[in-house]
Design goal:
The protein has 270 residues and is an all-alpha fold. It contains eleven helices and no strands. Keywords: Cell membrane, Membrane, Transmembrane, Transmembrane helix, Transport.
Length: 270
């Protein structure tokens, strides 16, 4: 009888433990927070017109319309292509240059004043100059995005080289390793976590800048969609563009982080 009672009590507690597990998992993933935000957003939007604050239901409906007529897909492709080109160009330019500047103290001493000056010049301040030099085509947009991504990656790479353990460098030199070998086997591997962080920062910079570039000098892309929506009094489209950018940026960052942890874990990437 006792064993039966214990078994029955255990069954009674199972739903509680099950519910607790669901709540814990949901909270960890942030799903409950997002659900709560959506509910609050929908309730607040009931007090306003769709022109001022559309609710999530209205935004989803307009999202479906823009997907079905192909407008959103086209804008996503243009924005991703521009951001990707600028980001990759920034990586190709910033990482090798950062390794070079960081590895030579005199070069770093000469370069630091210029880097500290130009990294505080906003991208938007250079828009007119880039348009005058490169025209209103894709070149000016990609150049702006490259500029926005360049400095975070460059400065992080230089910092990574500077953080190299001097004891490891001296140990390699004592074992007869050449300067090039020390650089390739000690300096570069120890810099990888910093380089990776710079690449992630550059990715966010490319997404921020592509919106600004498309608002100013484009007739397509998510930035243009957000900007032009005001002409049609379609606040819902603005929200569609903003949320799409957020989803794309978050997904790209999660993918980059996953790949870094998967393939660069041995170098200290977390």
């Amino acid at each position: 009888m006792k064993s039966k009672e214990k078994h029955t009590d255990g069954n009674k507690n199972e739903p509680k433990f099950y519910l607790k597990g669901i709540l814990k998992y949901s909270a960890r993933g942030g799903w409950l927070s997002w659900l709560l935000i959506l509910v609050i957003w929908q309730l607040v939007s009931l007090s306003y017109s769709d022109y001022f604050l559309p609710g999530p239901i209205s935004v989803v409906r307009n999202f479906g319309e823009l997907i079905n007529n192909g407008v959103l897909w086209t804008d996503i492709v243009f924005s991703v292509e521009r951001a990707g080109k600028g980001w990759i160009t920034g990586i190709v330019m910033a990482v090798p240059l950062g390794l070079l500047i960081g590895n030579y103290e005199k070069v770093r001493w000469l370069a630091e004043p210029f880097l500290n000056f130009f990294r505080f010049v906003p991208v938007l301040a250079l828009t007119s100059l880039f348009l005058m030099w490169l025209g209103v085509g894709e070149e000016s947009k990609i150049a702006l995005i490259t500029y926005a991504t360049f400095f975070p990656m460059l400065i992080n790479t230089i910092a990574g080289v500077g953080s190299t353990n001097k004891i490891l460098v001296e140990a390699a030199q004592c074992m007869g390793a050449s300067k090039l070998r020390v650089f390739l086997t000690v300096v570069v591997p120890s810099s990888i976590p910093f380089v990776f962080t710079g690449i992630r920062l550059g990715l966010s910079g490319s997404i921020l800048c592509v919106v600004a570039a498309e608002m100013l000098v484009a007739n397509n892309g998510l930035g243009y969609l957000i900007y032009s929506s005001r002409l049609y009094y379609k606040t819902e489209w603005m929200f569609v563009g903003i949320l799409t950018l957020g989803v794309l940026g978050f997904s790209a960052d999660r993918l980059i982080t996953f790949l870094g942890r998967r393939f660069l874990k041995q170098y200290g990437v977390k």
